[in-house]
Protein nucleotidyltransferase YdiU (Shewanella litoralis), 489 residues
Amino acid sequence: MRFKQDFFEQLDGFYSQVYPQGIQNPQWLGWSDDAAKLIGLGKPNNDLLMQLSANAAAPGASYYAQVYSGHQFGGYTPRLGDGRSIILGEAIGPNGAWDVALKGGGPTPYSRQGDGRAVMRSAVREFLVSEALAALSVPTTRALAVIGSDLPVWRESQETAAITVRLAKSHIRFGHFEYFCYSERGAPDKLTQLLNFTIAQHFPHLTADAAGYKQWFVEVVQSTAKMIAHWQAVGFAHGVMNTDNMSILGDTFDFGPFAFLDTFNESFICNHSDHEGRYAFGQQPGVGLWNLKRLAQALTPIIPSDDLIAALNTYQPSLVSEYVNLMRAKLGFGAASCQDRETQAELDKQDLQLISQFTVLLENSQLDYSNSLRKMGQIDISSQHSPLRDDMLNVSEFDSWYQAYQARVGNVADVTVWQQQRNQHNPKYVLRNYLAQEAIIDIEEKGDNSKLLQLQQLLTRPFDEQPQMNDLAKRPPDWGQGLIMSCSS
Ligand SMILES: Nc1ncnc2c1ncn2[C@@H]1O[C@H](COP(=O)(O)OP(=O)(O)OP(=O)(O)O)[C@@H](O)[C@H]1O
Ligand SMILES: [Mg+2]
């Protein structure tokens, strides 16, 4: 790893220097070759194991924890900060730099009551899902590795500690801006410094002046909207959309009780602590905007309100247009692109209606989201009979929807090509909670990570048939239906 230290060198006062504490008997549980390439690494080796388990210093690293705050479940917490994630610096790769962070690397000045650790089950889940989302082209932080250990940690019972090695283009969150607005009140110079740094590092096409700031916020709004459109299209529930878990670059960030939908359900809540369903699957688009509004408020000392509001107004159309485009590719509507903005919005609206009717049909018949889409992509569109019809409870509702759908798809020149294209947009395999759970249980009970490795392999090619893995595309068994994860991690 070759590091630069721009955040560390340029943003004194935005972090605390801290040394990670090694974990005993470290062992690789997982390693991502794809993530390794991003920072110019090849295969894992023992030196890297020692460095990434914090048992040896990594040459060129500056260990630090960033300070931020955030709105958690709607309420403002004035000071959070990296309580268990320690950043080594920005590792230089062939196509840019990536922060390397040891999540679970030990206590920091921001640990509050916590032990600075992550338990194996949560570290494994973060590792698997980061790489799974990347393979589905969902904007996300990455995971280079997950490292297990013998170090005991206490949650509801005794477990063992692990470290996820996270790669992020940036660790700057909405909560960084909130911290320097509210918690260090009277420090707009710091807010400006943070914004100028963010622009210079991650938005180099923009200038650090009023026009640049205005455009920057438009881009933040739109990348957030696009990320959430991806979540809705792929059926991903994040679970803890607090503003301290929202990346300024619109990358999916911090994986706690997340889930991919099995049965389609707008009201699905994956987080055991989310009693009111604030972060239910269908709420995510609205929460994204709520969070952006909290960010906008924190920016009012340095960006005019009118500019912030104008940018926020682009959220909904961006999200809808991205979502509709992703769903068009899944359902095979063909692109509807139009020069005239109003006509485009009208087309998007009509398609959105057809898509929503489809998801309502799935919901009413309690059907599996990913598998139903995969099935839809295999129909012969000219045929009056869709295999999904047999799964529907209300067949006549499906029939009338299917007629409208056929009309919208229109003539397909080559059905086989059309079906192959659909398969490139409808994953056969997603990281269902029960699959992650089975991999975790094997590690916990037998120290056996082979299921984890198998899942990782599988999920790097989620669109391919991989017939010997058919079982892993199935809906969960009874014990794994609608698994709800606790926040303790
Ligand atoms: N075991 C722990 N020890 C110390 N601090 C913790 C621990 N678990 C969570 N925290 C802190 O509590 C806050 C909220 O936790 P949250 O679960 O959102 O983040 P996280 O998963 O720890 O990390 P990140 O957001 O970096 O992915 C953060 O400040 C986090 O650092
Ligand atoms: Mg977090």
Remarks:
- Residues 6 and 164 are 23 Å apart (CA to CA).
- The pocket of magnesium ion (ligand 2) is lined by residues 244-245, 254 (CB under 6 Å).
- The first strand starts at residue 3 and ends at 4.
- The mean pLDDT is 96.
